[in-house]
Amino acid sequence: MGDTKTLNPQILEVNKNYPQQGEMFLATVKGKETVLPEDLYVPPNALEILLDSFAGPLDFLLYLIKKQNLDILDINVAKITEQYTSYIELMDAMQVELAGDYLVMAAYLAELKSRMLLPRPNEQAEEEDPRAELIKRLQEYQRYKEAAERIDKIPRIDREIFSANAKLPEFTLQTPMLDIPIEDLTFALAEVMRRVDQSQAHLINFEELSTRERMTQILERMKTESFIEFTSLFIPKEGKIGVVVTFLAILELLKDSLIEIVQSEEFGPIHIKGIDEVH
Amino acid sequence: MKNKLNEILEALLLSASRPINIDEMVKVFDDPKPSKDDIRSALNQLDEDCIERGIELKQVASGYRLQVKQNLSAYVAKLWEERPQKFSKATLETLSLIAYKQPITRGEIEEIRGVTVGTQLMRGLMERGWVKIIGQRDVPGRPSLYATTKEFLDYFGLQHLRELPELPSLPDLNSLELQLPIEEPESKDNPQALS
Q1: Which of A115, A183, B21, B193 has a CA 20 to 30 Å removed from the CA of A226?
Q2: What is the Cα–Cα distance from B42 to B53, expressed in whole angstroms?
């Protein structure tokens, strides 16, 4: 929390007493040699750390503005742009691989600066101050930057909140046979039974079906359909006995690990699928 | 019976190593199961019993948890040799944007933060279980919509999103004074003057 706040100024402003490097030309920009900004001593590799300590170009801009004791509303675009680009050029000269976002911001600031310099034609007098967009973005960003700092202060697990735990007693774990609650399966069965009741009037005396036969029929069907809805396996015409036989066949297939019963969401439809073959 | 219920609930809470809710508590009992109200009053009893102890019962988003009393946490923290993990500014900013503006797309997060949100960062938040994709916005590209989870609230000891610190308000832009002088059109150019 507090650390990050003090980190930024340190990097930029401390180290004045540090053994000074001789004035070092870093690069030639527009025919002029760039030197380090006066108030900036840059220890080797520090710029990467500097970049890391800011969450992005907006964060960096806010820092530059704060450093000038300015309010966001009073920013001087020309000055800020100059400062910002001098840091960017410096980092570029030191061959720090810059995140593209920083360059995008540099381009945006340059464009803004040029628009500020242009005289304003009268007919466009009602046009928004070009700075307004930048200010809006900075303010919006600052809200969430502050919100993030506040969230960081909330007591959290293993920092301020410690959960109480006791060592577990000896016990044997009961592993359920089914991945889905048995109530759901019985509920689905009840649903099928209900439908059967509705069509009971059409019941024809059917020859008795053996569970094995039904198992085979299901497996047969799985050859063409890999995913079968649970309820579609039941044939209402067969009546209650047929339903029971089918249900037993499904359980039997499940026991033999020939099929899997899946349910993608709570209370959702139950599906039967084949066990994925190992390739 | 009442006493027994307290003990059972305490055992559950101490062994769960995560918050557990009343439904889960009811489930561990054989018939006749205690009612939810029985559980609630037993939890109240348990909470009262904690007054003289180093732990307290806390309700968070996913249920109840027994935790060390807040005012004792400094002692406990000393036992932990490694400092708890700190979160980067990027992580916290992204998390707060998701928390306050959910459901939100990655593009919207990037727009406000002015910086690209790394895949790694998002994946990290999702692996911690704090953030999940709750759908896709119905626009070209169908970007994923992110939201926070109950686990996120649990981690920060909260029950509801509304318990988050208040979001700083946005200053009124109209208060911004334009520095560029705007020249008034001369009166002879004013169409009103002509009529």
Answers
A1: A183
A2: 17
pTM over 0.95: no
Bridge partner list, A252: none
d(Cα A191, Cα B120) in Å, to the nearest integer?
Answer: 46
Residue of B nearest to A128 (CA): B178
> Which among A57, A135, A162 has the least Cβ separation from residue B68?
A162
Closest Cα in chain B, distance from residue A75 (Å): 11
Domain presence at residue A70: yes
List the 102-161 stretch of A: residues with Cβ below 8 A of B. Answer: 105, 116, 120, 122, 125, 129, 132, 135-137, 139-161
> Structurally, how many domains does chain A consist of?
2
Average pLDDT of B132-144? 84
The pLDDT tens digits of the residues spanning B42-63 come to 999 999 999 989 999 999 999 9
Q: Select the more confidently predicted residue: A37 or A74.
A: A74
Question: Which pair of tokens denotes residue A106?
Answer: 């540099």
**Residues spanned by the domain of A12:** 2-119+128-153
Domain boundary among B29, B53, B78: B78
Contact A105, A57 (CB under 8 A): yes
Residue range A177-191: average pLDDT?
75
Mean pLDDT score, A73-85: 84
> What tokens were used for A65?
């503005």
